[in-house]
Design goal:
The protein is α/β, with parallel strands linked by helices. The protein contains 8 helices and 6 strands, in the order H-E-H-E-E-H-E-H-E-H-H-H-E-H. Bound molecules: guanosine-5'-triphosphate and magnesium ion.
Length: 291
């Protein structure tokens, strides 16, 4: 006869007593001030941030969330999927963020691209090549990705002589943290390939973990539980070990996807994340200029 499970075994509590990363929930102004005052040290330079990652991870939703928080008004410049089927974004597109008045923009841009699908090895290789070309500034805005072949050098969307503005200064992997087991091995391999290329170019890399509200009911109840959630910390560690992005470069966010009103704590996470991305990207620009 097998032992019956004891009625007295207590379920592990889902939250740590203390948050493992400190965040000042009352100070979203600090990050906002940095973002509002940010200016690359080279006149006319723009900081280019490229978002990539698996299909349906929330890349377009992050762009919409950033624009919404900065404008203090719900916006959806980047079309996001209304479900997680298929692959919604097909084009390479640059999003400028409006600052205050029309035709006045922040000196950073966010680039959206087609998501990585769990498909044949050959297609994943093509995806990696396309991302590499984007990193080096060879992909022109409006290019429609073709999963069957990489952007060729004679395509009208191939930029033969990219300027510093066309090149990517911060690479962001967007990861849906709500999936159990997080990512198949082949996706991990693809992300590692992309990361290797970015590292060779010296480009800083950050990961954004989306759908934290789906991954953890305690976070859904109160976003301030983000750094107390055991499941989230576990998934961040798992991802960090697999892909090699250090924990201090992984940022959980809850995108605005179905909401029509703001949540100050969600804003804080989004602004904090953007602040770190800009700051890493700016360090890279400065290093490049010194070389
Ligand atoms: N609950 C929740 N849903 C989210 C979050 N971020 C994105 N979503 C939803 O996830 C789905 C996919 O989001 P998208 O922004 O279109 O994802 P994507 O990475 O741009 O997808 P592709 O363009 O297909 O590669 C949409 O239904 C979003 O509303 C989040 O933080 N929380
Ligand atoms: Mg998209």
């Amino acid at each position: 006869m097998g032992d019956k499970p004891s009625k007295h075994i207590k379920a592990e509590p889902p939250l740590f007593d203390e948050p493992w990363r400190k965040i000042n929930w009352r100070d979203k102004k600090g990050a906002l001030e940095y973002i509002n005052n940010y200016k690359p040290h080279i006149e006319g330079q723009e900081l280019r941030i490229l978002l990539h990652g698996p299909v349906g991870a929330g890349k377009s939703s992050f762009i919409n969330s950033v624009q919404s928080v900065l404008k203090d008004k719900m916006c959806a410049p980047a079309l996001a999927a209304n479900n997680t089927q298929g692959c919604f974004t097909k084009q390479y597109k640059t999003y400028k963020m409006e600052k205050g008045t029309p035709n006045n923009f922040y000196p950073f841009v966010l680039n959206d691209m087609m998501g990585l699908k769990h498909t044949k090895r050959a297609n994943r290789k093509i995806h990696v090549k396309d991302v590499k070309r984007a990193l080096k500034g060879h992909v022109k805005d409006g290019y429609t990705f073709n999963p069957e072949c990489k952007l060729s050098k004679d395509n009208r969307f191939y930029n033969k002589s990219p300027t510093s503005k066309d090149k990517v200064h911060a690479l962001v992997s967007v990861i849906d943290v709500s999936t159990e087991g997080l990512m198949p091995e082949k996706v991990v391999e693809t992300l590692q390939d992309i990361r290797d290329e970015a590292s060779e170019l010296g480009i800083p890399q950050v990961a954004i973990f989306t759908k934290i509200d789906v991954a953890c009911p305690e976070i859904k109840r109160d976003i301030k539980n983000v750094y107390r959630s055991k499941v989230l910390r576990e998934r961040m560690e798992e991802f960090s070990a697999a892909v090699g992005i250090p924990m201090n470069c992984i940022f959980p966010v809850r995108n605005y996807s179905s909401e029509i009103s703001f949540n100050s704590d969600a804003d804080t996470l989004i602004l904090n994340t953007l602040y770190h991305i800009i700051s890493f990207g700016d360090d890279f620009l400065r290093r490049k200029q010194r070389c």
